[in-house]
Amino acid sequence: MKKHFNRRDFIKTVAATGVGLAVSNDLLASFQPAYPEQLYKPAPVAGPMQQVRIGFVGVGLQGTSHVENLLKIEGVEIVAVCDIVESKVQRAQDMVEKAGFKRPDGYSKGDMDWQRLCERTDIDLVFSATPWQWHVPVCLAAMNSGKHAATEVPAAITMDECWQLVETSEKTGKYCIMMENCNYDKVEMMILNMVKKGIFGELVHAECGYLHDLRGVKHDMEGEGVWRRDFSMTHNGDLYPTHGLGPVMQCMDINRGNYFDYMVSFGSKTRGLHEYAVATFGADSPQAREKFTLSDVVTTVIKTMNGETIVVTHDTSLPRPYSRNILVQGTKGIVRKYPEPKIYIEGVSKTNDRWEPINRYLKKYQHPVWEESESASKGAGHGGMDYIEDYRLINALLKGIEPDMDVYDGVLMSAVRVLSEQSIAQECKTLKFPDFTRGMWKTKRELMVMTNAK
Length: 454
What we know:
This protein is α/β, with parallel strands linked by helices. The protein is 37% helix and 17% strand. It has helices at residues 7-17, 25-29, 61-70, 86-98, 114-118, 135-144, 159-172, 186-196, 215-218, 225-234, 242-251, 272-281, 359-365, 368-377, 385-399, 407-425, 448-451, and strands at 52-57, 76-82, 105-107, 125-128, 148-151, 176-178, 203-211, 260-267, 297-304, 309-315, 327-330, 333-336, 342-345, 356-357, 431-432. Mean pLDDT is 91; it is low at 1-39.
């Protein structure tokens, strides 16, 4: 009799034998739970809340920014704050108290103190802004304790973690939201609005990515370099695909009538972080002796079920200006944001075959969300999109409506990171995406950010 394995037992067996990244995604996908598609439905929409009581895990740079935003949003109460650095907990507590609210309880007794926070009965939402490896453990504990979960990007860093988030959200009926702030950028939302109005015709191609000189950040032992540099030593793939990919996914209706079919990744040589260390700390320094694995430039090509192509670039180890490389192209026109927003629409642009500034389209096509929230978002992080991101989540919870993103969006974007590593490790092998929705992506549904602007 043939022995049957479930998917997680298989993955554990693979890990125990040391095969790791050499296992293809086709093989992993074959161990998805074999249940009828109709048994799987998105987590039910939560009922409206009088107030959203939040427990915050991780209040470093980005976590503190979220706390600042949340203190300005009506209907929010920050009940508890956790961080392994006690002074950061105290700083967040002081911020809440200074804003005129009750001082939240603090948790800073070691790496696992967030578990005590998740066990509280007076919290509705656990918000995680920790280093990447803690995102899934915190979210799982939150959902299993009856709370919604929100996490900074990426949602997960392994394929098994992706499945755990999906299965736990479905089982508990709790949201698991990846907080992708770039979905709320003013220009990206304008592009989304134009796409949905058919201005660019039928979409054919997009380009995006995360192109950001992080050499100084990765060598900063007082900031993210404490943990972020380690991933550049041990992983080779697109470690951070979501900032560029999030807005493009929305434009292409991914998980809402379209899906990622397969992808392939290529990695360049590795030079930038080492040369920076030599130039900054000296050729004989400990930093110069560190060995890095991450390719300086990782290029990924994705093919969607509807036939579009997407080129995703990860470039964080070389000198360069910041870019998310946003470009969307259809049968009637093309638009790009970097290095400056430009557009060409056939039959509409003033000069044939030449870019024109996007400014003259802003008034007509600015996204309703920005019309509503631009004033309130002034001064917030990343040009205001961080505030809008936080406001949209709280607004959905208070009103009892579906949030703009769901668990399937977060894990599919995060899976690009996992498959990218696998593809490069297997000499740039093309790999299929697992279907986290078990066929639900085929059902067309509108983006909440388009149908529910207020």
